[in-house]
Fold these 2 entries.
Entry 1:
Amino acid sequence: MTARTKLQGLATAAGFALALFVGGATTASAEDVTLHMAGPDWPPMRIMKDMFDKEYKPASGNKVTLDIDFIPWPDFYTRVNASLTSGEKKYNMAVSDSQWLGAFVEGGYFRKINDLIDADPDLKKAMDGMHPKVLNAYSTYPNSTPNFYGFPQFPDILVSYARKDIFCNDEEQKNFKAKYNKKLPCTGEEFDDIDWDLFGNIGEFFQRKKGDMLAGKPADDDFYGIAFQVGKGYDFSTTSVHSFVWQAGGDIWDETKAPSGHAEGQVNSDVAVKALDHMLSFIKYMPPVAKTGTMDIFKSDELFREGKVALNVDWVGLGEASLDPKTSKVSDKLIFGKAPGTKGADGKVNRSSQIGGQPFVLTTWNTDIINKEAVGFIKWWLSKDVQMEYASKGGQSAITEVYNDPKYVTLRPWNRAWASQLDDQKDMWHVPQFFDLLTQQQDQYDLAITGKQDAKTTLDNVAKYQEKLLTEAGLIK
Amino acid sequence: MTSTTAQTIPTTFTTVAPDNWKLAIVVGLVVSLLACLILPPNISFWIVGAMVAMVAMTFVVNAYHRHYYGGLLVSPAIAVLVVMNIFPLLWSLGLSFFAYQSNQQTIRFVGLANYVKILTDDLKAPENWANLTNTAMFVVLTVTAQMIVGFLLALMFAKQFPLRKYLLILVLTPMMLSVVAVGVFFSNYYDPTFGLLSYFIRLFTGEQFILMDNKAGAVAGIVFADAWMWSPFVMLLVLAGLVSVPKYLYEAAAIDRVSGWRRFWSITFPYIRGLLMLALLFRTIEAFKMADLVILLTKGGNGTMTISYHLIRIANEQNKTSEGAAISYVMLFIVIVLTNLYLYIANRRTEGA
């Protein structure tokens, strides 16, 4: 074989392969469409995938497969970020934490969906029926402008998880009343009224050593009153700090006021420092792991399910595991209420809270057919019946007509406390620098949580860093 | 032989032949330069790649004609090394002179600004410095712990005793586990509420024991986990040296009634010194890169942030690619200096001995 014939042979083979590839791709897209999606590995995603596989019939007649990469939460951001920025163009759709929007919209990865919404009356109706706070947090960039990027996938909110057997015990009720002259909450409605003062009382009251009496029996292990997220990973202390700051009347750097709004003076205002101190004052009542800076949403959930804590504030999205007797020692003794708020001077309780949950987005490299099928899937997903079924299996819906349905509150034990809190939700920044802002303040909060630094220094450091970073980015002038 | 001589007659520079590598280099350079100037980057990238391949091809053909088969046999390995290691290394070196973020589509030449920033910025430099000193602390502590434990284990396993074989397998197991498994295992082990450590200490004190709430405890926790995992590696290397010591040397020493201490320094140590040095070098380089256990056990809290983890956050999470590249080159520089210093000392010692 001469070099020439070899080359010819190679060229023929390459041409053949190319023809096969192109031909294969075109015939495939006529009938089989696979939507590649990145999503966190937790019940709200698993339920959606399950419902899709069993029930979804595309109107176009194509065969649509939803291929989800289930990624564990702690790695979720890193993995999605790596995939998007590497340019591999693997995903057609992705679940995105709301604060990622800016980074990935500016990077050119997330597709603007205004045209898709406008072109489709059903989709427009579904989006218009969305709770405005949720829609703003999950879909808009720049925040609160009519530029849409995301469809709500799972709207998550903080709620109180409490132990009925502990709180409704007569003796504990009596002792608590004697000590604090307050009624120890026992029903969901009573927990809805809870403020941080009462929350702190509960924390102090239920600190028991192994062998102390607890609800009429000796405790089999050390027992703690309260828990909420104060961990160093991802946003596991930011969520708590933001809620405390907002409730006290302070604010974080407000992206909607850019470029005239400043971080310095706002982030480290006296109100904010007091709010952070207030939050830190609860750590002594929590299980000791909080002092190590690793009390994240999973740890507090685990401690609660193992029966070590009386009252935990955590995301609804983690709730299914508490209900399941296989994963929870407290599955039959649960009460759910609103997350605690701060009582103001006027006696009103402010429950402003960091919103959780995620939208899903489309990526910019999708072909028309992919987009068409994705929109078909999303329309089906956001339709009333499907959302209702999703809620009945453990999901949530931000669509007004769904959560206002009288049946909705009966679907899951926390639903009663869920919809009523939607108005109180706020979100952190959505600017492209969010991860920089987040990791720096997480580091600083961790120093305060583990007792290395006071609240004032912490917030001064955060404010100084944010002022500099955002000025360099042109967001503060 | 005659045919070989005929083929190796140098072709003139302008001859278009598959083995004229000089011409190929010139053509490659010119075409690459033109492509970079005229075409958009995403096309010129591949043209430059094709030119590199062409030049490599002429080298291969040339070597083939000269019957230089040794070089040809090595070339695939070198090609892989260049594509997978050296090219990305140089690419990232280039990036460190630009302002580039992997999630943004703009790039701008800034010269040494990234290096200046990481070394002098009033917010960044102290952080980098603190992370670097933390890393140095981990290097010293983990490597010392591993060398001592590994060495003692090796001394023990060099002797024959019942169940030695099975015990050896058990001792080697940690090294074969995934770091993630080890990290999760130890974070449960240290947990104040659920953990075994807290449970045992509570038997004596009656209080739950919180290991990781201060720097000393957190560092001890990480160093212990790392030593648990990697001491067997040191042991394995040292053991290889110990079993290679000829028996007759010990027998001769026994006849001369040499003390155990002397026997160790004069016979055993010279045999294992090379391997000890190797273990030290490997573990030092590895310890310098420590991030995994820190992420799993403390997330960098309580003063355990290492420069590697910091780098992961800057480059992979915050997408500050250029700044990350600059930090990693400073790190690379430090590692190279340390390694050379070490090799220099090791060689001098050997010559002196």
Note: Chain B has two domains: 2-112, 117-352.
Entry 2:
Amino acid sequence: MTALRNVWALVRKEWHHYFASPIAYVLLVAWSVLGGIFFSAYFWAYLERSRATAAQSEFGMKMSLNEMLFAPVFNNMAVVALFMTPMLTMRLFAEEKRQGTIELLATAPLTDLQIVLGKFLAAVGFYAGMVVICFANLLVVWAYADTPPEWRPVLTGLLAVLLLGSALIALGLFVSTLTRNQIIAAVMAFSLSLVMLVLGWFDNPMAGPFMKFVTYFGLTNHLEDLLKGVIDLKDVVFYLSVITFGLVLAHQSVESQRWRA
Amino acid sequence: MIDVQNLTKRYGRTTAVNGVSFRVEKGEILGFLGPNGAGKTTTMRILTGYLPATEGTATVAGFDVFKQPIEVKKRVGYTPETPPLYPDMQVGEFLEFCARIKGVPKDRRAARVEEAAEKCRVADVRKKMIGRLSKGYRQRVGLAQAILNNPEVLILDEPTAGLDPKQIIETRELIKGLGGDHTVVLSTHILPEVAVTCGRVVIINQGRVVAEDTPDNLTRRLRGSAALQVDVRGDARMAEEALRAVTGVAQIAPHAAEADACAFEVTPEPGRDVRAEIARALVERGLGLLGLRQVGMSLEEIFLRLTTADAAAGESAPPPPPDAPPEAEVTA
């Protein structure tokens, strides 16, 4: 009970920081604009293609809105998330350390775990808000499509974007504990995420066991099935593992810095 | 209320705090005095559970700092030297947040914030952004934050640093007012501060406790017994003779004599007040008594003597015996 109340207090504090600085607004605007651009680009592409197939034959394959519109938009937003989450996580610990306010938190009756979780959930909560806003764009489709898209892949797609973002946030949170400079925290978080994204590019059917192992860590490789509407436990477990890993590292780092301080 | 035993903190090869022990009773105001870098902040950080100690134990309000840090943190209010504040929050919002993480129940939060803000005279800036506050206000917001949940123990690291003289006096009054209800430990390198606010002083230098007593006792003990400065008009030799004749005078040291006046520093035997006798003896011999006053050593002198003696004597030197005879020294 106390633990929950403490975490909630920290979440609210972090939200306060986001909205007291331009970061929240810049992120929301950039995210919505990019989401809108991807949506309209794929939407136009979809219209073109369906017109073309309709002209070719009467039995033209019904094209799936889910596959041709939603999945690529989510996929692109996942990459945008890679660029934006470092801005959410960079200040979380770095700024507290620079301002010396970490001493306030560390001498309040809070555990390190509560501090880490509060900060993580604050960033994830904000990010979830961003995802919902992006989704609002897509709602338009239901209003106009004669065969509405399936719900399931859309929901699993949202879940995918949310899981990926949370994993990125957990990693960024850890990186933020390592420095007192926000810019460094952001650059390191971004580089780390980018490396993990690139690992996935080595995925090919001919890959040997070692490359298979390497590509397992590809951050976006685990999105595919979810975007198709398939909840594969191993994908979900992958993201949850990355989240746990990031949080454990962050917790260890916060704790050990006190011993070394 | 606070019991520190043999506390040691090493950072790699440097030892910041070296076997520090002291006790603070309930309601007491303890001054923690030492030059910069003496280990004051480190000791305070250990007491608040911010830093772990390398060796030794510390108990605050009956709880072990290392074994039950959360219980200790619930009972300790702490302001570091630079108050930890969020510049993007309003004073009221900040205090509200602090009350939340300190576990002040919801129904009492507003009242506690109000009370702390009143006490620390920051109520008039509650709607102001902390980032725009002057140093003095920030210091006081830091203090308000510390007393929010009415903690049993207050640990204040240089609470008056960076304040103007008027604010310093106000803050001292505030801290004095907090003693009694709260047990206060405050650190400073400004000496008059402890003389004014603290009931007891611990002087720390290079990580070691070099003296511990009330400000008055420290002055007295270090001096042996209070010396007297005697200014006399007339012949120096005659005056000295007169002084020697007074019973209870242990030592006489002549000072810079002027043309027709002379001065002596007279040390009476411990516990004796010989002022009246001295005055009579001099007047009876027809000498003019120009001045007669006690020369206690100021805290500054004690402080300097303790901290420099220790430095000179090296690492293993014990603290100077408190009743060591004072060296002959000119204070005029």
Note: Chain B touches chain A through 27 residues (CB under 8 Å).
